[in-house]
Specification:
With 246 residues, the chain is α+β, with helices and mostly antiparallel strands. The chain is built from eight helices and eight strands. It folds into two domains: 163 residues, tRNA(His) guanylyltransferase (Thg1) (Alpha-Beta Plaits, 2-Layer Sandwich); 59 residues.
Length: 246
Amino acid sequence: MSLGQRGKRINWKWRELYVRLLSPSVFILRIDGRNFTNVLKDFEKPFDIRFAKAMVETCKEIMREFNPAFAYTFSDEVSFLFRELFGCRVEKINSIIASEFSSRLSLKLGIPVSFDSRIIYASFDEISDYLKFRQDECWRNHINSYAFYTLLKEIGDRRKTQEFLNGKKSSEIHDLLFERGINISKTPAWQRRGIMLYWEVVELEKEFEGRKVRFKRRVIIENWDLPLFDSEEGKKLIEKVLSYFR
């Protein structure tokens, strides 16, 4: 501690904002890319498989090091489900995961990128609803991205293109794209529904000293063909993912 102007000792540690703010023991952490429209200007539009693969590989590295139950990603965002990370200290959780993800993805892309993060409380019973909430956003991002970049080729001006699309309903955008030969419901599933990575225990077999030995190992599954999270198949998938985490 040091002395302030009035001679009182100051504990600067307790002057740090959020130092005493703790997260729930189980929480969702969502990270979002900053200014990715400009950062990814040289990538294929509206979606680039190279970027999606780089996001997935970075998610896998974060999962191996920090052990979340899952990572759900689309566009430039990722949601992780964690338990009791860094003593539940909010400032450490938000800063470390975002910075680790940013630095690792930057190396893969060969360009500097950055992410912000926020903590969301959700009980186990609410996680499926949260995932549906983000998957709905994935669909909106998907259809709006196709519409914007398809019309940009015709209009040639970003501001005018956005003004043309403002206020249009999803059904109108769907028809607009269909008229131009794009069936938005037939695009790759990872673009429409996102990608999920989660742990699964698999049984493996190896030869050891002349005999076969069977053993179990926990591995990361990449699911690029997700069901709708509010469907029966989607609910069963979420329940299976959480069963390794409860």
